[in-house]
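Inputs:
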Amino acid sequence: MLKIINLQAKVGEKEILKGIDLEVKAGEVHAIMGPNGSGKSTLAQVLAGREIYEVTGGQVLFEGRDLLEMAPEERAVEGVFLAFQYPVEIPGVSNPYFLRAALNSVRKHRGLPEVDAFDFTELAKQKMKLLEMDEALMKRNVNAGFSGGEKKRNEILQLALLEPKLAVLDETDSGLDIDALKAVSRGVNALRSPERAFLVVTHYQRLLNHIVPDFVHVMANGRIVRSGDKSLALELEQKGYAEMDELAVSELVR
Amino acid sequence: MTSLLELQTIQTGGPAWLGQMRREAYGRFAELGFPTTKDEEWKYTNVGPIAKTRFERGPAGAARAGKDLLPDLGCSTRLVFVNGILAPELSTPGTVVRGVAVRSLGEALKADGGAVEAHLGRYARTERQAFTALNTALWEDGAIVEIGRNAVPGQPIHLVFLSAGNGQPWASHPRVLILAERGSQAAVIEHYTGAAGSRYFTNAVTEIVLGEGAILDHYRIQDESEGAYHIATVQGVQGRNSVLRSHNAVLGAALSRNDINSALNGEGAECTLNGLFLVTGERHADIHTLLDHAKPHCGSRELYKGILDGRGVGVFNGKIVVRPDAQKTNAIQSNRNLLLSADAVINTKPQLEIFADDVRCTHGATVGQIDSEALFYMQSRGIPGAEARDILTLAFASEVLDEMGWEPARERLRREAHEILSR
């Protein structure tokens, strides 16, 4: 589904991704771990099409098509979804209006009829129940004044509504208390299917107790330095990232 | 001295006091002439195009042509003025509410004229205000809205000023007088509109008098043709504990200037100035506001938002005067602007003159662009860039629109703003 080949990117003059190779197949859950500044959030944002990052080399294929050529909205309707590390507040735009506009953009692309306000409310209610979201959030503006946990739940609600093929979760767990973490994980797990893939970017192993990955990759200094199964996450938890950095250095030397 | 005065003679007839007032105003205008950009108050706004144009009187009998242009805001009382003169066949008196009278100035002068004589021309100043002087000399008709003591009409009173002509540029000088007595609560919507593309000049003056504890929502909807010139002054005079909420939507006209003023002359009075201006293409909109705090414990809250696109030019000048007596004044002013193009221009200036020591006055002006993070966030959810931009622009405007209590006005403005922006 997703094939990343020697991807390099910079912001300003600073190189952040220095050659990423990764293949994700339908139905798989990949976790990307790594210390702050290792480039894992950049990778997530580059996949979604954030313009501040300049891709300087490499290729990304999504279902065989050049993802990097597509505008952000095109990627979204084609089935790529990014759950933001810091969801954006949009004062003046109501949450249901925004969610319905997004849903209808995706549905339009898929050749499905638009959902009216009434049906949308019903659909949203159903999804919110699963995420244990307060219905009052549907009366407010997009993320405006939401707590950290509410914002992350709102991201997963969008994920559940838009039903993408590839979901990239960028540190969705950071700042969540255990109840919120469980609710968010439940939301994600309910969406796991043989047709859908996940790329879960996280700093902590904790999330992976709830969203169990098929593969774990460790990023350091703009590269994937190790890949393995879920046991790698546990190993990391014990040893910490410091050793991984050394590993990255030794690899560079070699 | 000017083509306007060559073609439009001072109005005669009517009571002697009015004739006297008109002659004085005429003299005043002749002395002042049209303002130039050398005048500090008109620094950024060149009214040369108005001064140079030969405007005629609005053509008579245009009423029928204007029917499809009439805005419907669901108000049962709607007076329609075509080229500044009441068109009874287009107007509906609405349900009669005890203590409320809505008439044309012409009718009121014929009937008794006492209220008109007592108030008209007593508040809007003319010593340096050439356009107000011109209006006073030349107005042919307009509206007088009287809200009696404790009267509460349930719906807004809709005053429509429609400009409809036949090619030659023409001018009208509508005049409005709103008298809200003690304890009353009402809403008045002044709505200025004209046929698309037509070239005319509207020079309006409104005087508002609020008695003790009176509450008034005053709407100005400037939905003029893109070829129009529009100059307007609103002068409020507020008694003790009265509340004036001014909602001002500047959407149309090639060149416009609004002076929105209120004198807080009674203790505990409150004034809200809530405004939106939207300039696209080559248009120019100038907003001047003046809040004159004369008595203690008064409050004012002002928010003007500007959206500027193309080569549009906006001017905002917000003046707050706090007189020596006006202790415990609480005045908040904010002007926020959204620039959608690199060629659009906004000139914004707060002006505070504070002569009392125990007051709280804040002001702020911002100029910004569309938030790129919000834009990316929406795009990443599949919403096309252009649509996301529109949504964010309207969201910027909605803080002002949401303050407007009368839903049909609010929603119509939202639609119109959207239409103008997507042109």
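The CA atoms of residues 6 and 19 of chain A lie 4 Å apart. Flag for discussion at group meeting.
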